[in-house]
Amino acid sequence: MTNTETALKETLASIEGATGAALVDYTTGMALGTIGGSKSFDLTVAAAGNTDVVRAKIRTMEHLGLKGEIEDILITLSDQYHLIRLIKGRGGNGLFLYLVLDAKRANLAMARHQLKKIEGDLEV
Fold first, then answer.
1. What's this model's pTM, rounded to 2 decimal places?
2. What does CATH list as the number for 4-121?
3. What's the pLDDT tens digit per position in 5-29?
């Protein structure tokens, strides 16, 4: 089991093309930890904004009566991928991992696989 800081460091180190990562509470919009980003890309602001994405998807699933669970939400931009992975189990209810990838360097399938592994090892 890994803590938040270790998990975020592992995310940047082990996922090709990763430029930033955060652990976010989507009930409050607060980032519990961040790593990476830049002056032109504030991870805290991005994390807070993506809570709206998660809430909207959960609300839509409820309205549609869908019973499945969200694994990932993927947002593709012209030069970036934004991957949101909801945390399951061990007190992770209401949390998600947020990963920003450089689209030119990232392998999306491998990033999803590695993020799932990191999520499984995360102790919150």
1. 0.93
2. 3.30.450.30
3. 999 999 999 999 999 999 999 999 9
